[in-house]
Amino acid sequence: MLNALRRGAKTIFAKILIGLLVLSFAVWGIADFVNQIDPTEVARAGETPVSAAEYSRRYQRAMNAMAQQTGQGLTPQQAQAFGLPNQVLSQLVTEALQVDAARALGVDIGDEMLAERIREDEAFAGSNGEFSRARFDQLLGSNRYMEAEYLEVERAAAAQDILIGSLVGGLKVPEPYLQAYNRYQNQTRTVRYITLTDDALGPIEDPTQAALQTYYDANKADFRAPEYRGLSMVTLSPEALAEPDAVSAEAVRRAYDANGAYGEPEQRAVQQIILDDPEIAQKAVDALNNGAAFSAVLRELGRTFAEVDLGTVARSDLVDPAVADAAFSLDRKGAAVVDGRFGPTLVRVSEIVAAGKTPLEQVEAEIRTELALDEARDQIRALYNSVEDAVAGGARVAEIAERFSLPTRSVASVDAQGRAADGTYPDPRVDEAVLSAGFAAAEGDDAEPVTVGDGYTWVQVDTVTPAADRPFADVEGDVLVAWTRAEKVNRLADIAAKALAAVEGGTPMDEVAATYGATAETAGEISRGAPAAAMPQQAIAAAFEGPLGHTASVIAEDGSHVVLKVTEVSEPAFFANAADLQNVRTTLNDGIAEGLIFELVNARQGEVGATVNQPVLNQIIGLEQGS
C-alpha cells in the first residue's frame, strides 16, 4: 500500500533504478555538506530538494522492513551498521537527480494530467473500481502526507517517468546480441579425450638422502612446528549452575501435570452440529442419550457424518472453549448442547483415547534437571557481570573458578586447530571460539569471555611456544611423503604435456592413450548449458576455448590430467522469437536501460552536485552530530 503511493514504483524503469541505488551511491557519493541548516530538507540535488518528511517516511519504512526480517526492532546504531540511512539517502538523491534533469529540460505535467494520473491509480480505487476520494484521504493520512505535499511528490514522479521513459522506452537489444548468446549457450561439441591418472606413472623409486634434504631445504616452512599455547578455561553455563536436587517436589508435579507433557494427552473423537434452534438441538441430544442411532439423528437434521465430524482431537485442538469443555467431560457416546460461538451446538463424543503419560518416577530426574537448567539460565546474566568484575580486578581463571564454584579446565599445549604436538585432539576438544580467543590474546592478558552454547567460557593464555623449524631428522618421514606426492604431480604433468604434444602432432588419440595405459573416450554433443556428466567441468570449459580441432590439457579436481581434442562443432539454429530467448531478451534490454540511467545519474551529479544536511539527517535517524 505504501509503495503504491509512488506511481513510479510500478514501472520497469523504477525497478531498474532500485538495482542501481547502492552502486550509484558508491560511485558518485554525496561529497559536500550544506552549511546552512534548513530543517525541511535533508539533501539537495542541483535545484531539487529532498524533503526531510519524505526521507523520514522512507527511512521508517526501511526500518520496519528490516525489523520484520530480523524479528526485532533496530536501534539507530544498528540501523547505521546495516547501512539503512545511506541506502535511503542514496535512493532519494538518485531520484532527485533525475527529477532535476527532467525539470532542467522543461519536462512537467499540468494539473489536469496530474489529476488524471492520480485518478487512474488503483491504490485509490473504491469498491466499484473507480477513484474514491475517501480512499485517497485515508491513504494519505495513514502515510502522513498532506494533500499538497503528495501532489508535489507525484508531480515530480511524473516528470521522472517521462524523462526515463523517453530515454529508455522502446530500447531493444540488437539481434546480434541474441545470436551471440544463443551460440554461446547452445553450441554443441564432440570431444575425444584421455584421462591420465597415477596409474600412468609406474613405480616411483626411493629418493636419495640428498634429494630429500634438498626438498626439505626448499620447503622448510611446510614442516615448521606451529605455535602452541597452554590455555586455562573457566566455564559459566547452565549445567555448571544447575542444582536438580534443590528443585521442589511441587515444582516437579506441576511440570509433570502440564497439558501434553511427558506423553500424549487424552484425545476424543468429536462430532459437532451447529443449529439455529436450541430446542431442536436439545431434542436431538435427548434422543442420542436415550439410545437413538447417530445416523438416524443426522438424517433428521439433514446432515452427513463427514460434515459434522471433527476427527480425533486433543482439548487444545478445539478452538471453542464451550465445545472443548463439553467434549472432554462427556462419557463415550454421550451428547450435550452448549452455547457455542456460532449458536446452539450439539456436541457428541464417539470414542475416548486415554492419555499415554510416562509414569512420574521414570521422568522425575529429567524434570528436575530441566527445571534446574531453566533457573540456572536466569541466573547466568547476573553472575556473568560478577565474573567480569573479578576479571577486571585482576583475578585469574583458577581464582574465578574457586570464588564462584565454577568448573575449570587446562590444556597444556595445543595449536590453533586444537591439536597437541602428536597430532591428537584433547578429549573433549577445545571449542573453536575458545581457541580463536586464546590465540588472539597474549600471555598475561585478562581472561577473555567467549559465548559457548547457553553460557560463557573465560580463556587465559598460560604459555606460548613460538612456531619453529623442525630439524630434518625429526620430520624425515613427512618429507618423504611430501616429496613422493610432489614427484607424482610433476611426473604426471610431464606425461600430460607429452601426450598433448603427440595429439597436436597428429598421433591418433587411441594410440596416445595406449602409450600410457589409458583409454580414449568420446563425449558427444556437450554444451555450456548441458555439459556431459562424464567429463570434468574443467575439461568442458577448455573444450570451448578454441575452434574445431582445438586441443588442451587441464587438471581435474581429483588431480588427474585430461588431454582433449575438439572433433566436431555443431552451430545451433537461431529463431529470434524462440521462447527460451525471451527471458534473455528482457535481461539484455534491462541491462541497456540500466546503463543509460546510470550514465544519466552520474552525468547530472557531476554537473549540478549533490549535498546533504547532516544535522537534519542525524536528527531523523536518531544519531547525534558526528556519531
Structural overview:
The chain has a four-stranded mixed β-sheet. A hairpin with a 5-residue loop joins strand 16 (551-555) and strand 17. It is 48% helix and 18% strand. It starts with 11 loop residues before the first helix and ends in a 6-residue tail after the last helix. With 627 residues, the protein is an alpha+beta fold. Helix 2 packs parallel to helix 23 and helix 4 (84-104) crosses helix 7 (147-168). The model is unreliable at 1-35 (pLDDT under 50). The protein is extended, with a radius of gyration of 38 Å. The protein folds into four domains: 3-170 and 590-621, Triger factor/SurA peptide-binding fold, CATH 1.10.4030; 188-218 and 475-570, no CATH class; 228-242 and 362-465; 266-354, Chitinase A, domain 3.
CATH overall fold name of the largest domain: Triger factor/SurA peptide-binding fold
Structural class: alpha+beta
CATH class of the largest domain: Mainly Alpha
Indicate the CATH architecture of the largest domain. Orthogonal Bundle
Biggest beta sheet attributes = 4 strands, mixed
Number of E-state strands: 18
Q: Report Rg.
A: 38 Å
Termini gap: 34 Å
Shape: extended
What is the count of structural domains? 4
Average pLDDT over all residues: 87
* Poorly predicted parts: 1-35
- Please list the strands of the largest sheet in the order they lie side by side: 1-18-2-3
Please bin the fraction of helical residues.
40-55%
Question: How large is the share of residues in beta strands?
Answer: 15-25%
Quickly count the helices: 23
